[in-house]
Every structure is written in C-alpha cells, then in structure tokens.
Amino acid sequence: MPIVLCRVDDRLVHGQVVVGWGRPLDVQRIVLVDDDVRASEWEQELYRMAAPPEMAVEFATAREAAPKLAGWERGKERVLVLVGAIPTALDLATLAPAVLTRLNLGGIHSGPERTERLRYLYLSEREADMLHALARAGLDISAQDLPTSRAVPLKEIG
Questions:
Q1: Which one of 37, 74, 87, 119 counts the least CB within 10 Å of its CB?
Q2: How confident is the model at residue 98 (pLDDT cuts 50, 70, 90)?
Q3: Domain 6-83+91-100 is in which class?
Q4: CA distances, 21 to each of 24, 113, 127, 132 (Å)
C-alpha cells in the first residue's frame, strides 16, 4: 500500500491525526519525521501512547526516512508520514524528490513572523517561500484540517 498522506502538523501525533485522518484512511503505520523527537526516548513514548495499538509509530530523521520512502510507497502497510515543520518537509522532499508527490498542510499554529492564512494555518514568508519552491519542484501542496474539509490549494493560500 502507498504512503496515504504526508502531513505537516506541528502537534505531531494527536487525536486529529489519529482519529480524524488515521482511521478514515485506514493508516497502519505513522512515521514521525523529526530530529528532536528521534533523539528523545521520552517524547517517543508519549507519541506512541497517543496512537491506538493497531497503528505502529516509527520515528526517524529526514535523512533516515528519505531512503525508506520508496519502500513504504511499495509496501503493504498504509503509511502516514508526519512532520512537525515545513523545513523538515523541505528536507525530506529534497532528499527523496521522486517519491513524495503530495504534501498536506494541517495544524501549523501562530508563531513569530507568522500570519494567519487559514484558521488552522499560519505561515511566515520564509515558510511560504519554501512551500512555493516545493510546488515549483512538482509537489502538489494543499491545506486541509480534516479529510471531510475542502482541500485548499497552495495558490489560494498565498
């Protein structure tokens, strides 16, 4: 089965990802790509507890995950790749440009230099530039908080 979703959500593994996305997409494995979480056993245990037992949770850096993407895409499990920040998504897409074709923007919350683009999506100009560079490189990028919501294409986000 393919990678069914590659999502940027700064809350990482939480109810909306597990219940809102994981269950409707029949996700069997969540791959959380984040350098800090990969280095912290304590944080990994917290994120494992947020997922139900039938959803495996794996942790990787972008460098560790990139060479595995093609295998996950061809594998039997339905995989959700989850990153917490746009720079991590950029790293992952740069390291594996032929594999990632879509990027879903979810909960990216208010922060320094960020402006509201949608009620659940705040971006800095630097982050927006990164996303537009990814789109020019061929990624289909849209924002969508839940599978039942309309996907908002990057060109409408600005």
A1: 119
A2: confident
A3: alpha beta
A4: 6, 29, 24, 25
Residues facing residue 122 across a β-bridge: 116
Domain layout of the chain by residue ranges: 6-83+91-100, 120-158
Percentage, residues of the chain above pLDDT 70 = 99
Give the pLDDT of residue 97.
84
Kind plus residue range of the DSSP H or E element containing 80: strand 79-83
Confidence category of residue 16, pLDDT binned at 50, 70, 90: confident
Give the ranges where the chain is alpha helix by DSSP (H): 15, 35-38, 41-50, 62-65, 69-74, 86-95, 125-136, 154-157
Taking CA 62 as the corner, what is the angle to CA 59 and CA 66, rounded to the nearest 5 degrees?
Answer: 100
Residue 126 in 3-state DSSP? helix
Q: Output the pTM of the full model.
A: 0.94
Which of these ranges, 78-87, 92-101, 140-149, has the smallest mean pLDDT?
92-101
